[in-house]
Amino acid sequence: MSIVKVIEVIGSSENSFDEALENAVAEVSKTVRNIDSVFVKDFKAHVTDGKISSYGVICKISFRVTDGV
């Protein structure tokens, strides 16, 4: 039987939403194996002096839990 766990993370970038999502997955991949999918829950952007200064994505990352075999 396969078990899937879901964690919620926030990725950020100074360049784009796409890069923010890639950063989130890359960072989680450092400590989590068997990532199956990413669901983007929300987008956000910070504004400084009338311009977007950073992009963010709130996402749910799903991964399969294994017994270490």
Automatic annotation (TrEMBL):
Top-level lineage group: Bacteria
Pfam family, one: Dodecin
PANTHER family cross-referenced by the UniProt entry: CALCIUM DODECIN
Name this protein carries in UniProt: Dodecin family protein
UniProt organism field: Membranihabitans marinus
